[in-house]
Design goal:
The complex is a heterodimer of chains A (about 200) and B (about 80). With about 200 residues, chain A is an all-alpha fold. Chain A has ten helices and no strands. Chain B is mostly helical. Chain B is about 75% helix and about 0% strand. The chains are: A mainly alpha (about 200), B mainly alpha (about 80).
Amino acid sequence: MRESDDWIRELREDGEAQAAAIRDLRELLIRGLRRSLSGRAGADDGFLEDTTQEAAMRVLEKLETFEGRSKFTTWAMAIAIRLAISELRRRHWKDISLDAAAEEGTFRPELALDPDPSPGRRAAQQEMMAALSRHIEEGLTERQRQAIQAEMAGMPLEEIARRLGSNLNAVYKLMHDARRKLRVSMEAEGFSLEDVATAFS
Amino acid sequence: MSLTPEQSRELIKQIGATRAEAGLACDACLEQLAEFVETQLTGKPLTAVQQRVDEHLAQCVDCCEEYEALRAAVESIEGED
């Protein structure tokens, strides 16, 4: 079994040693991808082969950036997983606009209520949900509301970012600020986190 | 179309769990993921940076999905070596 230093040395060499290391790297990556993406839509054998090929090339390109903070194999697998998941997300969502996802993620307060609560519990839930619905509609920017609703419909942040012409970090911050705004608004109306947990427990 | 009751409750839960500061950004979290997975698998205590990774994963569905996939992959390749 190769240690990290062995992997780095052999992948840097020329000839058969490098070829063997690349072969073994590909086998290891496809094994890991197959297990972690098992059952996931789109992750068929063809996809796994293509992704493994690209991941192996990416690992070779980034070899000099390996810092040894983890095992080489874990580091390489992280590169492969990033590639695979990103591509699966892109393919799954490619025909769905931000507007369509936001529409699917629209918050309707009546649907968050228990189907058969006690009268007092139902009244508490209705009041809370009406407040939240109002804050979503009136307290967020259009961009924040769209992003929150699209995410609730399942759209990944990097796909939201793509459609907004933004980047992953900026969208994560956008979402955080939106949720923070909603939490502060709810608390300002007297609804604490405990109140919400109790009403919906 | 609108959120299901379960999705609505998930939104409420996420809002309630939102911290004052955004903390680690996604890129920085993903950069630390390999090391974080190994620490989790060995059961060692988290470093200060890894604690921030852990907090980010609790708030970011996408990064959490990637962590779980990486963890499953690493468990697989380590188990068969």
